[in-house]
Amino acid sequence: MRQQPSSKGRMPTGSRAGAPQERPVTSNRGAGFPSSSSGKKGLESKPGPSSVGASGQKALEEPPEVLFKKLEKEINSLLDKSAEAKLVGNLSGSLSLAKEAVSKEKKLRNLKEDAGAAYQINIDLTYAACVNLGIQYQANGMFEEALNTYSIVVRNKDYPLSGRLRVNMGNIYNTQEKYSSAIKIDIKFNYKQYFFNIFYLFKCVKKQHQYENII
């Protein structure tokens, strides 16, 4: 049976005479929207990249300055603990703490260089960590390691007062009965400022019978 034309002389949009049933006009499939079981997901925007970590909380990065101060505090704490351990006779513990302090200080320097903040490197902290390591090596009888550590500091022109470490180096040579080396290392020392070490020098000279080296 033919449908009656509408009041404006057109056939209803839902169907047409003699043609198969077409989709209703309410379908949005032809408009480029994906179909969805809920009817809403097609209109929702996709979420962007998320900074939420596996724990479900946003990972907050510390500013470089905060990280630098945190590491410096940890290094100073390690140096204090290392010295305290040596005082109570825990030599192996003091050496372990000294090594950890040097390792963290090196990490801190690298972080500052990578961040373009090399001008913030604390050379006093570097000096303290290296000298403490040398002292702990010496206390543990690891004389070669101690001499190498002291030598690195003494050769560094950033540390004008590092010459006093030659006293430590001379003491090691004296313990090893390497009196000739002790004399050579002490002659390079500035006795105008540290005259008290003259007595130590004469002691080494007397044992070695090399009085001409003192002139």
From TrEMBL:
<dbReference type="GO" id="GO:0019894">
    <property type="term" value="F:kinesin binding"/>
</dbReference>
<dbReference type="GO" id="GO:1905515">
    <property type="term" value="P:non-motile cilium assembly"/>
</dbReference>
<protein>
    <submittedName>
        <fullName>Uncharacterized protein</fullName>
    </submittedName>
</protein>
<dbReference type="GO" id="GO:0042073">
    <property type="term" value="P:intraciliary transport"/>
</dbReference>
<dbReference type="GO" id="GO:0036064">
    <property type="term" value="C:ciliary basal body"/>
</dbReference>
<dbReference type="GO" id="GO:0097546">
    <property type="term" value="C:ciliary base"/>
</dbReference>
<dbReference type="GO" id="GO:0097730">
    <property type="term" value="C:non-motile cilium"/>
</dbReference>
<feature type="compositionally biased region" description="Low complexity">
    <location>
        <begin position="34"/>
        <end position="51"/>
    </location>
</feature>
<dbReference type="GO" id="GO:0005814">
    <property type="term" value="C:centriole"/>
</dbReference>
<dbReference type="InterPro" id="IPR011990">
    <property type="entry name" value="TPR-like_helical_dom_sf"/>
</dbReference>
<feature type="region of interest" description="Disordered">
    <location>
        <begin position="1"/>
        <end position="59"/>
    </location>
</feature>
